[in-house]
Amino acid sequence: MLRLPIGERPRWKERAQEFGFHFHTLYGEPYWDESAYYQFTLEQIERDIEDPTEELHGMCLDVVAKVLENEALLRRFCIPEQHWDFVRNSWKNGDPSLYSRLDFAYSGQGPAKLYENNADTPTSLYETGFWQWLWLQDNVDRRALPLQSDQFNSLQEKLVNRFHDLQFLTPGRELHFACCKDTLEDRGTVQYLQDCASEAGITNHFVFIEDIGCDAQGAFTDLRDQVITWMFKLYPWEFMFREEFGSLLGGNNVRWLEPPWKAILSNKALLPMLWKLFPGHPNLLPSFFEDELDKASNYSELVKKPIFSREGANISVVRGSDVQSLSGGPYGEEGFIYQAMHPLPKFGKSYTLLGSWLVDDMAAGISIREDGNLVTQDMSRYLPHIIL
Amino acid sequence: MKRSKNINLTRMRKGKGTSFVLRPLALGITAALMGCSSEEEVKVVSSVEDCVSNTQLDEAQCESAYQRALAEAERTGPKYANLSQCEAEFGSCRDSGSGFWMPLMTGFMVASMLNDNDRRYRSSGYYNPVYRYSASGSRYYDRLMTADGQVIGRHGKTSYTVDKSAMDPKPKVTKTVSRGGFGAVASAKSNWGGGRSSSGRSRSWGG
What we know:
Chain A is 28% helix and 24% strand. Chain A is built from nine helices and 22 strands. In chain A, strands 5, 6, 18, 19, 20 and 21 form a six-stranded antiparallel β-sheet that branches. In chain A, helix 6 crosses helix 7. Chain A is globular, with a radius of gyration of 21 Å. In chain A, 53% of the residues are buried. Chain B has a domain at 36-167. In chain B, 29% of the residues lie in helices and 18% in strands. Chain B contains seven helices and nine strands. In chain B, the strands form two sheets. A six-stranded antiparallel β-sheet of chain B has the order 7-6-5-4-1-8. In chain B, helix 3 (48-54) packs across helix 4 (59-76). Chain B is extended and about 65 Å long. At the A-B interface, helix 5, helix 6, helix 7, strand 8 and strand 9 of A face helix 1, helix 2, strand 9 and helix 7 of B.
């Protein structure tokens, strides 16, 4: 695994315009960065990333099954009691999932270590599935990269195939996509998924989360008063559970992407549960609930993470009684978990986080984020990669 | 090869200024993708008698078809909060009995060519209601359309050639009584002014 400099494609910003990639620069800072790329060997990809990704996903599903049959665990995962049946039923019915992303610390040597599972609302999808694919294609075409360069990235192909399957599993329904207002990045991610769904022949619509309505019977509606029967929402389950319309969930006939049982996976309580069920697994970091810190005495440094959080918010490092905040944020009211410190590898001046994508249960590619800080946050940069 | 073998760049290209705006239904694209003949000739009949004299269905089948179309109109028909809005677009409207107004069904569609199997199937089949649009000055004036606004043709023809999707069941339309019940947590958290994005607003609610 190497970080190598490369010339930017001439006029790549015009190309971004041509393909509708509008968030490559955010708040005046570069987000998409093609001044360098990461190079992996095929063995690193297959042995260290692809296989562990699918194995860990299977282990995560074991955790879901375990948590859903245990009320004490449902409480630990902060699932509100009035939504237990909603979540349990979605699991019992086998509601299908679309995609997720596991975040790893990986340096090219030794096992990749799981930081967390973005199983409910993963983003940086378009940049991965399409834009870095195009970057490789363009650079091979202009001979800036060797002809035999490959990429671990079958994301778009797998997404379209998955949408084909999902239509078969969800007959007679049109698919509504939703995200929040005022976020170009989320709208871009959702537009990309709409393009993939259209490619698979699914009739689809868009409505902003804030514009969703309900009728007198509790059915959800879009702005044209069409009843929503199948919805992809780029909006966290833990938010929806706690909002006004949350009380209608489960009472109306809607199929969800991601399905409600994903609330168990996109939850940091997953990490100590994995460690309990699979102690010593090479891809796991020792992790503990707050009331089990006596078991963590072997670890001089622990990372404290909120049960619910997004984009690296509210992370601190704990050394004995010393707590040092690494990032602020609006999360943490539901409590915290603790993970043994395993810093991100540093390449040059940047810390590097590797995201490994799954479409349903198949490993589908990787994305790389770099940050000047140890915690990758919302302003970290995206870099492409190749396999050579 | 560990990457997508082929991505259709033409389909991924976005016209200038058209990205991320609401786009119409993907129906046309879908039909083209399926690669099958997507058109069908239909008759629009306005009553059971009209159905018996102008289609291959017999009286019992026509009666059943009519009842099905009425039920479908109830489920999928356009719904208005007040009578004047409804009348402005469709002329004749009725009180739904549940607090809103709906246009009267002008008729329902029956396929022109039915073989024996079709006829048996059609008697228990699906019948889409159509409505006559009558807003004066509109380019759709006097056009027949299905509940989702798909235009069938000018009112009064003996038969119509329609996209097969016109015969598909339409999504249910209802009356929204409340909006804004989702989004409050994101809104509360976005008031937190930290993070490194200078706007103080989170860039994404994903992760």
